[in-house]
Amino acid sequence: MTQFINKKEDIVTEAIDGVIRASGGALVRLDGYPHIRVAMRADWDRSRVALVSGGGSGHEPAHAGFVGPGMLTAAVCGDVFASPSVDAVLAGILAVTGEAGCLLIVKNYTGDRLNFGLAAERARAFGLNVSMVIVDDDIALPDLPQPRGVAGTLFVHKVAGGLAESGADLATVTEAAQRVIAGTLSLGLSLDTCTVPGSPKENRIPPGQAELGLGIHGEAGIEQVSYDSAAQAMRLIAARLEAKMGPGPHVALLNNLGGASALEMSVLANELAASSVGDRISLLVGPAAMMTSLDMRGFSVSVCPMSEADAAGLAAPCPLAAWPGAKPLGPVETRRLPDGLTPIKPLASSHAPTEAFLRQCCEILIAAETDLNALDAWSGDGDTGSTLAGAARALLGSMEALPLADHTQLFRAIGLELSQTMGGSSGVLLAIFFASVGDGASGGLSTQDALRAGLARMKEIGGAEPGDRTMIDALEPALDALGDGLAAAAAAARKGADATASMTRANAGRAAYIAADRLSGHVDPGAEAVARLFENLS
């Protein structure tokens, strides 16, 4: 079992109970498990129009996560990706509907239309005033007579829910919902399929491909396309949306389909702002997981033109944790660095041999990126290669601004560059190393002695010594042998690096938290980087 569940038969009821327990008393449920699963507001008094939505589970936080003031009154939950029964929907309607009436918000799937529709008819037979709207915002299949309802449904929940909360009548709430539905467009893209509890995972999307327009129930998309970056993925989505968008400003909703990290979603938000529709987006909802497809590693974008009143309703505060709010999509503003942090740049100077040497060092580290990352995955977080390669690329980019003809100032400049561009503790330690080397060189030390002085300072501040399974295990013997030439330094570095493979205890760095069996037989990635650098230089 690779999911945090007990039994697949109980996953929906247990999840609903978990949401209710964590609501702080804001939610309750109707009795009737397991056939009737309705989460509803604990404070509801039937004095206003009720909003009821729902459908299959697996889209969390939809639908129970959006039950509360300003949004839904009740959510009717079916099995994973399966519509709730007619009786369950009817129970939800009867539990929350008073004289003001009830609006059903239904996504355009056959099961939902039929079950919610029949429940509405039966509720009307009880004398209740019930209206129903169908959300059909998915544009993945342009010739489909009945497009699916996907994440754009949340626009309807918020706009209609806000009106109902303010006391608007059923006709007004229904008209607003229909107006939002008419303008909403949505499209999604994913790098992987979802994992349905208790079922084998379908691996239909090959590496290097993404699926465009797949549904929130894991249905296959309209096509598989090549994938190479977040920017390319967002350009594709934006172009399809733009072709169908009307004039004027729109609100947008950036939805995590379940498996993308928050870091990735922030990158996608940046790409959405930079896309062909970015300058037409006045408000952005998200990025957040709102209408998911279990653990699907994808995202969707929904857009809708809205009147000032509807946009204000969308942006109105809402106490629900699942609703991320709607905020203006603006530029990236910057502020000047505080005094003391703005770098004092040395005068740039040229020196062809030094530049060639530095470029060679940088290219060696960039070439080793993948291997070092793989090695670091055994003892750290798998980013040693990327960290060093990123610093190398930054150094290459600043080459023309370096004092290449003044080695004393050059060491300090390299230290300053690394402190700003190289992340993690290794970036700080190497910045200390080069700054100290520069100090030593300015005091009249030879290059080898200045390098040793830099190493001594790095050991002092970093707290690592030879035998602690760090880059020092290769760097110290290399610097000691440097007086005999690069070949001798390379051999010493390699010997020191290889020795770390037999060290089953690290006394510094992230490897200090790793079990011995994970370390045994694997060279420390920092030491390997030093060894490769000297070997290639020699």
From TrEMBL:
This is Dihydroxyacetone kinase. InterPro entries: DhaK_dom (IPR004006), DhaL_dom (IPR004007), DhaL_dom_sf (IPR036117), Dihydroxyacetone_Kinase (IPR050861). Residues 352-538 form the DhaL domain. PANTHER family: TRIOKINASE/FMN CYCLASE, TRIOKINASE_FMN CYCLASE. Coiled coil: none annotated. It comes from Albimonas donghaensis. Residues 7-323 form the DhaK domain. GO terms for biological process: glycerol catabolic process. One of its GO terms (cellular component) is cytosol. It comes from the Bacteria. The keyword Cell cycle does not apply.
